[in-house]
Amino acid sequence: MKLSIERGALLKAVAQAQSVVERRNTIPILANVHIEAEGERVRFRATDLDVEVVDQAPAQVERAGATTVPAVLLNEIVRKLPDGALVTLSDQAQAGRLTIEAGRSNFQLSTLPKEDFPVMASADYSANFAAPAKTLRRLFDKSKFAISTEETRYYLNGVYMHVAETAEGRRLRCVATDGHRLARIDADLPAGAEEMPGVIVPRKTVGELRKLLEDDDMEIAVSVSETKVRFATPDITLTSKVIDGTFPDYSRVIPANNTRRLEVDAAEFAKAVDRVATVSSERSRAVKLSLDEDRLILSVNAPDSGAAEEELAVAYGDEKLEIGFNAKYLLEIASQVDRENAVFLFNSSGDPTLMREGNDESAIYVVMPMRV
């Protein structure tokens, strides 16, 4: 194998591929990236056996072939090469080496046999559809903060993507929850997604997917089966196993009868929560919300370090209410609001609170209160 490629294109492709490689590996070949050159393109493939990413880039291929080299090391080398450099990759199969040349720089990396590199088994996808990158980015970005990190409840360690029946018709929906907060985001159902099985997309895959969704004008090809999900752009294909478990019936925890309505400027609210939470060294410190006629007082009382209080002008016309929340959870939910105002709907100080962006019900959030 011998090819020449522009350093920027090489770095983008290698960085995308190596990010799925696990740093601590007991299987040496999984630390490598599979490089395959043919025609006018070079393909980089990396996997951790659960997630596989394939990235391709244009290249001048002098001699077709394939090999595998340490992914992280290759990424570091390419990253440190000068901008605009033309990089030549050539392997000597007999010597078990890949030579990397750029200007006066010359590197040689050990290779492992390409035959040993695992390829994720292909699946028969029951649903194939295309969705705008902007739509998918909104669905996953607004829900991923609520993914659980608790390994014992593994079925919560991802975003549940499924087709939901609503009063407005069928919608594409993403839901995530960790038992303390919940995010439920809806979008128009793309053509071809009607028969899509509900799948739990793992946390790591959600993180990798974000890199495919930067271009608002791009359409992403999505394929879903009971066991796998695949997202593809013209250059990158991300394939992942889905979490083998049943996502709980989240509709039961979404309150339907919360009538006490607070409307507040989302940015001002987030800044105020952040300021009053500063006095507490504990990340989980409760922030108390004291609500009265068109007035909100945020307060934190940390016996070890002090106390803080801030008042905000808000739209609130119900009876007085005092309720506490984890400061971190409040900040994360408030930061999801794209519109100017956030609307909170309360029932009592012990019941879950609902939050949405103005009157838009395509994105709703639920957060459990804390005792204060």
Can you tell me about this structure?
The chain is α+β, with helices and mostly antiparallel strands. It has three domains: 2-116, DNA Polymerase III, Chain A, domain 2 (Roll), CATH 3.10.150; 127-252, DNA Polymerase III, Chain A, domain 2 (Roll); 256-367, DNA Polymerase III, Chain A, domain 2 (Roll). Helices cover 16% and strands 44% of the residues. It has six helices and 26 strands. The strands form four sheets. It has a nine-stranded antiparallel β-sheet with strand order 14-11-12-13-26-25-24-18-22. An eight-stranded antiparallel β-sheet has the order 6-2-3-4-17-16-15-10. The longest helix has 12 residues, at 7-18. It is elongated and about 80 Å long. The protein starts with a strand and ends in a 5-residue tail after the last strand. The model has no long low-confidence stretch (mean pLDDT 93).
Topology (elements, then pairings):
Layout: E1 2-6, H1 7-18, E2 32-38, E3 41-47, E4 51-58, E5 60-63, E6 65-70, H2 71-80, E7 86-92, E8 97-102, E9 105-110, E10 127-132, H3 133-141, E11 158-166, E12 169-177, E13 181-188, E14 199-202, H4 203-209, E15 219-224, E16 228-232, E17 236-241, E18 260-265, H5 266-277, E19 286-292, E20 295-302, E21 306-313, E22 315-316, E23 321-326, H6 327-334, E24 341-346, E25 353-357, E26 360-367
Antiparallel strand pairs: 1-5, 1-7, 2-3, 2-6, 3-4, 4-17, 7-8, 8-9, 10-15, 11-12, 11-14, 12-13, 13-26, 15-16, 16-17, 18-22, 18-24, 19-20, 19-23, 20-21, 24-25, 25-26
